Amino acid sequence: MSNEEEERPAAPSGPIEDAWKMGIPEFKQGDMRHPLVEESSFATLFPKYREQYLKQCWPILQKKFSEYGINAELDLIEGSMTVRTTKKTWDPYIILKARDVIKLLSRSVPYEQAIRVLQDEIGCDIIKIGTMVRNKEKFVKRRQRIIGPNGCTLKSIELLTNCYVLVQGNTVAALGPYTGLLDVRKIVEDTMNNIHPIYNIKALMIKRELKKDPKLANESWDRFLPKFKSKNVKRKEPKKKRVKKDYTPFPPAQPESKVDKQLQSGEYFLKKEEVKQMWLKKKKERQERAVQLRGEKRERAFVAPEEPSFSGKPSTSSSDVDIDALKKRMSSSSKRKKQKV
């Protein structure tokens, strides 16, 4: 047995209460006894506007990769970055981490953030959002919701998940702890599916507070979390509604052609002169009808309008007037006049 094996603590033989709290031993240089059999390599393209930045940071990146025995190449003619293993590579998984680093660099992630992926507890996730929404205007609005006013929403997502998030073009690049990456993906996908990110941000804030209470460790947190209710907004009904016809397996009848109509009327068998005479006759009839309509229209202006008949006032019948009451009124009024005199 070597000295390194003697220094390592013995693995626990009994049952473990919480395996997630166990620390994973760090993979050190010398743990892999034999070199890699085959050479592995990954390449990725980068846009033209990233060329200047990559040229500046490439010597620092090569120096960092050389610590793990990884060879990095930058091809400015083809616009590609390549990473490959060498005989000095002492970590078999580091080539996948190096692949993620060059992917993030090609997607405008700064070097200081991208190089963090080489750590064991940090990963990255590139979420493709370009195909989630068909309408371009809706896509731009929902993508803007992830960023928020002055980047407030994006900053709050980064603080709650401990991840670095970059929204650019049709992708969202995120890097950080693996549990945080799951939360970032859920927030982005829900936002593109028309669920506002504030609901997920609220849920993360509540979960953070609930984690502090040990009494709620074995209970369900559903009663504390906000529930999103989708609102079915009624669509405006069109002015002209198309009435659906009854389904029939047979195709509709073919419309009659000009020749078919001529065959039915008999014009097809007439000579050219006869057809012309017939056409002139129809034209003359149309002209006569039009002249007649114009004449009727002119004559309407000279027709006197009907005057309303005014009848006299209706005579009131004797049955409607009470004569006795009228006499009493007249006598009382005459008495009042005499008294005044």
Detailed description of the structure:
- The mean pLDDT is 84.
- It is elongated, with a radius of gyration of 46 Å.
- The longest helix is centred in the C-terminal third of the chain and has 29 residues, at 272-300.
- With 341 residues, it is mainly alpha-helical.
- The chain has a three-stranded antiparallel beta sheet, with helices on one face. A three-stranded antiparallel beta sheet has the order 4-6-5, with helices on both faces.
- It is 43% helix and 11% strand.
- It starts with a helix and ends with a helix.
- Helix 5 packs antiparallel against helix 7 and helix 6 packs parallel to helix 8 (197-211).
Short description:
With 341 residues, the protein is mostly helical. 43% of the residues lie in helices and 11% in strands.
Structural descriptors:
three-stranded antiparallel beta sheet; mainly alpha
Number of DSSP strand runs: 6
Q: What is the mean predicted local confidence, pLDDT? A: 84
Q: Which stretches are poorly predicted, pLDDT < 50 over at least 5 residues? A: none
Strand order of the largest sheet: 1-3-2
Question: In this structure, how is the largest beta sheet organized?
Answer: 3 strands, antiparallel
Class by SSE composition: mainly alpha
Number of helices: 11
Output the radius of gyration.
Answer: 46 Å
Shape from CA axes? elongated
Q: Sketch the topology as an H/E string, one letter per element.
A: HEHEEHHEHHEEHHHHH
Provide the helix percentage.
40-55%
Q: What percent strand?
A: 5-15%
Ends apart, CA distance between termini: 153 Å
